[in-house]
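Structure in, sequence out. Go:
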């Protein structure tokens, strides 16, 4: 059988649950040996009724959670682009929620340090600061573990507009994930 291979008994169930693509899990007495092929995981069963059970499994991951600090054009563009990507974007003051994947500080010098400290303490995977290298270095000199902050945030793609800056930051976040 082309494209089909044997698997260790019981391991099919675990792999089906971890699959990133949709998978059909078939539990059937017809599967003498567990096997897998693209989109299908089959496992034998010992039920004397002889029935077959098929379960369609599709991973539904929670949206990426992003926190934006600031209310300027770049902060607003970052929130809009994040929502367009299907991310859950939180703006404004407040604690950093558990499971936050990224924090972007784009507040033009207003309240940056406490937010950066909170994000670093919460071990947020991506912490970015919208600032020049010079101003960013001055801010990070006052923040412990500031070397984890991406400044200037985003990939260097020659971004000029707030929307382009937002795209460059999301590109960096995606690359690092």
């Amino acid at each position: 059988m082309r494209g089909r291979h044997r698997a260790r008994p019981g391991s099919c169930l675990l792999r089906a649950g971890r699959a990133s693509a949709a998978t059909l899990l078939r539990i059937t007495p017809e599967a003498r040996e567990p096997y897998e092929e693209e989109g299908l995981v089959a496992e034998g069963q010992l039920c004397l009724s002889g029935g077959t059970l098929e379960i369609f499994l599709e991973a539904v991951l929670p949206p990426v959670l992003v926190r934006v600090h600031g209310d300027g054009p770049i902060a607003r563009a970052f929130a809009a682009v994040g929502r367009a990507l299907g991310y859950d974007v939180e703006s404004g003051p407040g604690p950093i929620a558990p499971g936050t994947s990224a924090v972007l500080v784009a507040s033009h010098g207003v309240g940056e340090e406490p937010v950066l400290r909170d994000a670093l303490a919460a071990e947020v995977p991506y912490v970015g600061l919208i600032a020049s290298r010079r101003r960013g270095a001055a801010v990070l000199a006052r923040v412990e573990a500031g070397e984890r902050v991406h400044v200037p945030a985003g990939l260097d793609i020659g971004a000029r507009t707030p929307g382009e800056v937002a795209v460059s930051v999301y590109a960096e976040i995606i690359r690092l994930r």
